[in-house]
Specification:
The chain is mainly beta and about 190 residues long. It has helices spanning about 30-35, 165-170, 175-185, and strands at about 1-5, 10-15, 20, 25, 45-55, 55-65, 70-75, 80-85, 95-100, 110, 115-120, 125-130, 140-145. The strands form 3 sheets. The chain has a 6-stranded antiparallel sheet, with no helix packed on it.
Amino acid sequence: MVVLPTPLPGLRVIKPTVFEDERGWFYESYNREKFSGAGVDTVFVQDNHSRSAKNTLRGMHFQSSPGQIKLVRCTKGEIWDVAVDLRPESPTFGLHFGAYLNEETKHQIYLPLGFAHGFLVVSDWAEVQYKCSSVYNGATECGIAWDDPDLAIAWPLKGQTPLLSQRDRQNQSFSDYRSGLSSSNPS
């Protein structure tokens, strides 16, 4: 396994060691001891699995409290996976990182606390599985608009309109998110 840093502190790309032969392949998608030894020391308590059609865009999601650390992988098809740094004290606050995840490379993205997450399905269908450090809580569910001009995420939509949930059509702007931070922390 190789753990690679990204330009956003704490966000990492994980390239598993895959053993292949004439029978197929095998790899450990998660091994707590090995991940911990590589600096990814998180206890995961919930696994999620989604299946989505081409041009489905899910995001940009996060939970306000206690937040969720995530380990994301695409096990069928291909997605463009995006993380946005929402940590106001971070030098990369408001910046994003995107990478293709697919069943061929088996790469994963590790998102520490303080990131919004989303993905776009670029294959006909995709299945995404991810581990979370805290159980989902609808009361702390939040989102930022996938197409917010302040974030300027270059989604590979190729002129198509994404398929969005009603929830994702109503996500707040990044500006509103920033305003909420300053109003909850008066100087």
